[in-house]
Amino acid sequence: MQEADEPFASHFDTSVLRRVKSYLHFIRSSLLDPQSPLAAYSVARTASGVVHAAA
């Protein structure tokens, strides 16, 4: 039986950088999603949408 459902799951387990990037992507996506419970911790929104990080 295969331990992981995803083909590159072993890389995720062994690569610290890949794991951190994945976690950061999840956090960023959660902050940008207005339906997310984490949206309350996001940066201020403008009338046209989310303030861009580079602004």
**Portion in strands:** 5-15%
DSSP summary: helix tally? 2
Mean pLDDT, to the nearest integer, reads 70
Radius of gyration: 16 Å
Structural class: mainly alpha
- What is the CA–CA distance across the termini? 49 Å
Strand order of the largest sheet: 1-2
Number of domains: 1
Instruction: Indicate the overall shape.
Output: elongated
Number of strands: 2
Order of helices and strands: HHEE
Organism: Pseudomonas syringae pv. japonica str. M301072
Protein name: Fusaric acid resistance protein region
Quick overview:
With 55 residues, the chain is mainly alpha-helical. A two-stranded antiparallel ribbon has the order 1-2.
How does this model look, in words?
This is Fusaric acid resistance protein region. It comes from Pseudomonas syringae pv. japonica str. M301072. This protein is mainly alpha-helical. It has one domain (9-50). It has two helices and two strands, in the order ααββ. A two-stranded antiparallel ribbon has the order 1-2. The chain is elongated, with a radius of gyration of 16 Å. The mean pLDDT is 70.
